[in-house]
Amino acid sequence: PKREDLMVDIGRLPYLNTKMKKEVAEKYNMKVADLKTRLPELLHRVEELHEFNPMLGHRGCRLGITYPEITEMQARAIFEAVVQVAKKGVKVIPEVMIPLVGSARELEHQKEIVVRVADEVLEKAGRKDLEYMVGTMIEIPRAAVTADKVAEHADFFSFGTNDLTQTTMGLSRDDYTKFSKEYENVKVFKADPFMSIDQEGVGKVIEMAIELGRQTRPDLEIGICGEHGGDPSSVEYCYRVGMNYVSCSPYRVPIARLAAAQAAIAGGDKSEMMRTA
Q1: Contact partners, residue 50, CB within 8 Å, separation at least 6
Q2: Which of 18, 31, 119, 168 gives 20 to 30 Å between its CA and that of 225?
């Protein structure tokens, strides 16, 4: 629950009638008799979890390392769903992506949990023949510059280009709009870096990660996810640096497919067009 909501409910609790107290109790899944003591306890816990900079805080693989049961629960849900789909005769190869990785050990730790849970679920279902992949988001510069080590534990890389742009440029996507007009006027960037990949800066980080990753694993599958995947200029860039796929919002998929086809035709030296999703 939101800290603000809790503070309001605690403040008005003494003035509520029985019916309204029941509504508050249902809201927090508590008994009416426990509201007076448990609501302040819940507020205290929420305040303990408060972060000054959540974007760079306790989320992604960091949360999974602190609370391994979260990763276990998510992995179990994925592979139980895979089994159910397989029973219907649908072939599926899930790609489990570990987010916010900054070091090889973070990925290794989380992958161990995913593989253990996958083995348990698939063995119990008698479907150990089902395939899956475990990879990572590359959205922190450290993961990019140590991509050779990260690739030791990854079946694929997916560049989270929105977050990678933020962390590489030290630029908040949410706050950039406040001064983007001025930056456009004096031509600081060739285009909005959150709409089209900054090839001169962020692009160099991406290219380094691709080169290092494939030094370790030549068959490493690499792509991007996010709104950049629907930008024609970014799609052409992804093709040029050797990515296998781009992913974007559903409504941008037709644009991405057209851009991928145009890049393949213009390139002429690669046999396959990038996948789009």
Answers
A1: 3
A2: 119
- Taking the C-alpha atoms of residue 32 and residue 28, their distance in angstroms, rounded to an integer, is 10
Quote the CA–CA distance of 48 and 45 in Å, as a whole number: 5
- The structure tokens listed for 38 are 């448990």
Q: Give the per-residue pLDDT at 177.
A: 92
Percent of all residues in the chain with a pLDDT value above 70, rounded to a whole number: 98
Cα distance between residue 4 and residue 111, in whole Å: 37
d(CA 240, CA 145): 20
Q: Is residue 198's pLDDT more than 60?
A: yes
Residue with tokens 């605690």: 10
Q: How far apart are CA 248 and CA 231, in angstroms?
A: 9
Distance of CA 172 to the CA centre of its chain: 17
Report which of 53, 148, 154, 64 is spatially closest to residue 100, judged by C-alpha positions: 64
Report, as an integer, the average pLDDT of 97-109: 98
Nearest to 253 by CA among 231, 221, 224, 222: 231
Please give the CATH number for the structural domain made up of 55-276.
Answer: 3.20.20.60
Longest dimension (CA), the chain: 74
Name the residue type at position 195: M
Residue 273 has what pLDDT?
65
Residue 248 has a pLDDT of 87
Checking 70-77 for CB contacts under 8 A at 24+ apart, the result is 71/110, 71/113, 71/114, 72/113, 72/117, 75/113, 75/114, 75/117, 75/118, 76/117, 76/121
